[in-house]
């Protein structure tokens, strides 16, 4: 079995696409209407793939606090500077629980927590 993608319902599809493109570096690979008032977009980079769904009739999104998506970066310091430059609040960290990993948290426009990770080799 192979993991395909993770799905997130969004309040505003364009805002979410802009966030995941500009901040995370994912590219839109497919975008389509999926019925009256519903639109779906798939974004990807390499093996990473997410599905964003926006239902115009139901924009009450409840992501919750017990899940996060992790994205690896080459330099945590450069990414932290970029995130701050974009005006995005740091939701936690940076943390370094051991000599091999550093990370911090941010939230996307829907409240999904993202863990930005640097694996130190």
TrEMBL record:
A Pfam short name: Glyoxalase
Q: What is the lineage of its organism?
A: Bacteria, Bacillati, Bacillota, Clostridia, Eubacteriales
Q: Which residues form the VOC domain?
A: 2-119
Give GO terms: molecular function aspect only: lyase activity
The species this protein was found in: Anaerobacterium chartisolvens
State the name under which the record lists this protein: Lactoylglutathione lyase
Query: InterPro entries annotated for this entry?
Result: Glyas_Bleomycin-R_OHBP_Dase, Glyas_Fos-R_dOase_dom, VOC_core
Keywords of this protein's UniProt record, alphabetized? Answer: Lyase
């Amino acid at each position: 079995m192979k993991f395909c993608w993770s799905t997130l319902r969004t309040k505003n599809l364009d805002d979410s696409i802009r966030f995941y493109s500009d901040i995370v570096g994912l590219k839109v690979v497919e975008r389509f209407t999926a019925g009256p008032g519903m639109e779906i977009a798939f974004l990807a980079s390499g093996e990473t793939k997410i599905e964003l769904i926006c239902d115009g009739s139901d924009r009450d999104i409840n992501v919750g606090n017990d899940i996060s998506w992790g994205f690896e970066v080459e330099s945590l310091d450069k990414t932290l500077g970029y995130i701050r430059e974009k005006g995005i609040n740091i939701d936690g960290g940076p943390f370094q629980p051991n000599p091999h990993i550093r990370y911090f948290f941010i939230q996307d426009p829907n409240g999904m927590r993202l863990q930005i990770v640097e694996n130190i080799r």
